[in-house]
Every structure is written in structure tokens, then in C-alpha cells.
Design a protein that fits this description.
Blueprint: E1 5-8, H1 12-21, E2 28-31, H2 46-51, E3 61-62, E4 68-69, E5 99-101, E6 104-106, H3 113-126, H4 155-166, E7 172-173, H5 180-186, H6 205-212, E8 218-221, E9 224-231, E10 238-245, E11 248-252, E12 256-259, H7 263-272, E13 290-298, E14 312-314, E15 330-333, H8 339-345, H9 351-359, E16 361-369, E17 377-381, E18 384-388, H10 394-410, E19 415-420, E20 456-458, H11 473-492
The structure holds flavin-adenine dinucleotide.
Flavin-adenine dinucleotide is lined by residues 8-14, 31-34, 72, 75, 79-81, 83-87, 193, 225-226, 260-263, 265, 269, 427-428, 460-461, 471-473, 476.
Amino acid sequence: MQPDIVIIGSGIGGATVASGLAGSGAKVLILERGERLVASPEAHNSHAIFVNGHYRPKEMWRGIDGTEFNPGNYYYVGGNSKFFGAVLLRYRREDFEKMEHYGGVSPAWPFPYEELEPWYGRAEQLFQVRGALGEDPTEPFHSTPYPFPPVPDEAPIARAREELKRLGLHPASLPLGVDIDAWLKQGRTPWDAFPNTGTGKMDAETAPLKQALVDGDIQLLTSAYVETLHPSPDGKYITSVTYTHNGERKTVTPKLVILSAGAINSAAILLRSGSLANSSDQVGRNFMNHNASAMLAVHPFRRNDSVYQKTLMLNDYYLSDGMGGKPLGNVQLLGKINGDILKANVRSVPKFALDFMAGHAVDWYLMCEDLPNPESRVLVDGKGIILQWQRSNLESLERLTRVMREHFRAAGYPVVLNRPFDRRTPSHQCGTIRMGNDAAMAPLDPYCRSFDHKNLFVVDGSSLPNSAAVNPSLTIAAQALRVADHIRQTELAA
Ligand SMILES: Cc1cc2nc3c(=O)[nH]c(=O)nc-3n(C[C@H](O)[C@H](O)[C@H](O)COP(=O)(O)OP(=O)(O)OC[C@H]3O[C@@H](n4cnc5c(N)ncnc54)[C@H](O)[C@@H]3O)c2cc1C
């Protein structure tokens, strides 16, 4: 097939833009370096996943200090979403505006929340989000309700919800793309960080890609590793894409190229292609992740026998520290931790002690905004990736840690432990090819089109101008649907 459009990558960005182009009549080829995940015993085995790193890539990146590390960045059909916690949460309205943080300024988007709102609603339908409106004080305006009611709290979590309410906090149901009955039928495990080899989790493969591939004009080619893009002699267009498939090098010449390889790999592909789309010198810069910690609230005499746990969030400190100060961040449950998961992080403690601790803890995830910094960047060294992540705004995480430790103690958990996530986990990577109104400051326009090359779009976490302090997937998906509509109107209209 000679495609009209090539999409590079089948993660949330690539698969969702493909679903938005379905039925347009355009011939679309999705080039994905990974294969489909298939069912296997490892998919339900936490030792295989967390201790043996069964699904991690056979790839090493270099960090800011020059040392190598094996990143938790997944190359399968569906990308990182195959492992995601399926929290499908909108950025708050204020996240689209300039906001002062303890560590600096979070910049405004090139458009307000209201512009993206209709596509947020469509993305919630596409990913069949389970949620409840009216519980969270920071909730932005929704023009459409959630398509399904929330995933139910398990008994220990229903109790934690009441304990937090008694403290005057506002625990709210996490919006989730999970059909809990279908998920648990395959194995009684959490879904967060566990691979989806079935149908219970609505990820990029099981939701938008499945829908896109119903259109016979959209094709997926797996094990297709994109190496470089090539510009026209005048530099104004991308003329071809080179990839290897089964060891063979191939070239394709579409009318439109949509780069959706994830925030780190999309930047790497442009840099390897002779620094394309980079007249602003911002490609690979402004890398953001989140500043995040795991916090275990332990009650030594009370077992937490939850299977999945992950149904609550707290945004009481999202817009302010509660005393009129600056924002701190979001707090949400992790998938239920067990001794294997702890062992992967603290190898020196005996497993029986970790099993006991995990069995008596409610496990939380504290997430604070990382701020854009041009020196926080992705660089390439031949085929290799160098990730020079400069963390920012750590004061917010310290303050949120202090305040939540106090709350969990007051709620009746005498032991509260916490541990920050490290650089090996670039789960919420974004910002490396940002959008903006000014071509001198941003590689992409507000529809994710390259200012330099008219037929190049970048549709994934790269384009986000800020990281906010919520999980990014629903925002990537909403923007992908908006971009697909723009392409239909400007490029495909008869
Ligand atoms: C354990 C975990 C839990 C998470 N939980 C949540 C959550 O609960 N909620 C949430 O919103 N987010 C969560 N995230 C983050 C979320 O998964 C990502 O933000 C999202 O999947 C990013 O989508 P993307 O399209 O930007 O990139 P990716 O998912 O990285 O997709 C990029 C795709 O491109 C492919 N690719 C890369 N390079 C090439 C190449 N050279 N040639 C061809 N193909 C290529 C990759 O294989 C991949 O399929 C989590 C992530 C992890 C790892």
C-alpha cells in the first residue's frame, strides 16, 4: 500500500489520531516498532514483572551523570498504555493558564480548557471511562457525563474514603478505563503496571486502535522501527520515512507524516534526522516527567486485602497548599503493592518483612508538577538516547509529603513510609516538542503541526506545554482527536 498518511507509533497519541481519521477515506499506515503483547503466565506474575523485568526493553539509556540505566519505557502495540494505571483524568481548567509554583512558573497553553473540552468528552467515550462527577473540588466543567459509573471501592478503600472525609478532605473516585469484571476474570491482580493481554483495560490497543483497524484503509505494521525522516530540498516538507522491518530497510513517501513515538523517542527521531522541525532549537528540550513518591500508610493490626485498590484520588492540595500558598499536587491510590513490588525497590530488606508491610498498607501515589526547563533534555548519540532530566519544583513534593504524612497519621495509620520514584521511570514523559503560538519558542503550532514542515504533525506526550500534576493520557488522547478533526478539515476535505 502507498499510504497517504504514515503514523509512527501506536501508543495513546498514534492510535487515537488513527481512530479520529477512520472513515476519512485516507490510506493510513501505522509503523510500530513493537509486537502485540500476547497472553502468558508472566502477565499475572508480579515477580516476573517487577523483579525480573520481564517486559522491560532490551535497551539502555544514559542519564545526566553519564551512567546507564534500563528505562521503564515499553515498546509494544499500544505503547506504554499496555502497562498504565488507566487513570483517565482531565487536566484542571487552571492547568491551561499560567500558574506560579514553589519551584517556578508553569506556562499557559496556547488555548484555554474550554477549547479542548468537547474532545475530552469524546476521549472519555472512546476509552469507556468509569467515573463520577461532583466529588472533586477542582473538577473542571464537563459538557458530557462519564459513560459508566465508577469502579467500586474495595472494603479497605471504602473505609479509607470515610476516614479521609472525617478529616475534612474530599476523596473522589478516580476516572478509570477499566472494566473490572473483565479484568479480574483473567487473574486477580491489580492492573496498574501489569500488562494488558486481554480486554479488561482500555488502553491504546484495545480502545482506539481496535476501532481504527475496522477501517480497511488503516493498516498496522509491527516490528517496523522508524530510523529517520527526510525533508524536501527546500526543507519545507517531509518527503519520506525510512524504517527497518524484519532486518530490511524500507522507505515510504506519504503526503502527511504523524510522529507519535512518545515524548522521548519522537524527539530522538527528529534529532537523528538532522535536527528536523527545530528552527526554534526546542526539540528535545523542556523534558518533563512528574515528581512523584509512593507513600505507604501502614496499620500493623489491620490487613489490607484489596486486590486492585486504585479507586480514589485527593485534589485538596492541587491548586493551593491549603493555607493560601502555591499548588502542591495530586494524591491517588497506587495499584495494590505486594512484597515482590517492594523487593524490586528495596532489595536489602527480607521478603517476609516486605510481605507483612505490603499486606498492612494502603499505598498512595503523590504527584507534583515538573516545570519546563530548556536544559532538561533528550539528546541522541547515534542510536542511543541520553536523558538529561533536570528535576524542578521539588519543594512542592516535600510539602505534599509532609502534609499527607500528617493526614494519614491522623486517619489512624501509625506508620507512614515514603519513597520517591527515580529517573528509571519516565512514565509521564512530555514536553520535548511543545506546541505554542510563537514559532521562535515552540516547534509545533496549537494543532501539533510543525511550524517548519507543513506536512509533519507530532501527536503524543511531546506536545504538552506543561506537565500539570495529573496523569497525561486523556489529555494526549483529547488533543489527538482534535488534531485528527483538523487534518480532516484542512488536508482531507474534498
Ligand atoms: C507503569 C505506567 C503506568 C502509567 N499509568 C498511567 C495512568 O494511569 N494514566 C495516564 O494517563 N498515564 C499513565 N501512564 C503514562 C501513559 O502510559 C503515557 O503517558 C502514554 O501512554 C503516552 O502515550 P504516547 O502516545 O505519548 O507514547 P507511547 O505510549 O510511548 O507510544 C509510543 C509508541 O511508539 C512506538 N515507537 C517508539 N519509537 C518508535 C520507532 N522508532 N519506530 C516505530 N515505533 C516507535 C512505541 O513502541 C510505542 O508503541 C503510565 C505509564 C506507565 C509506564
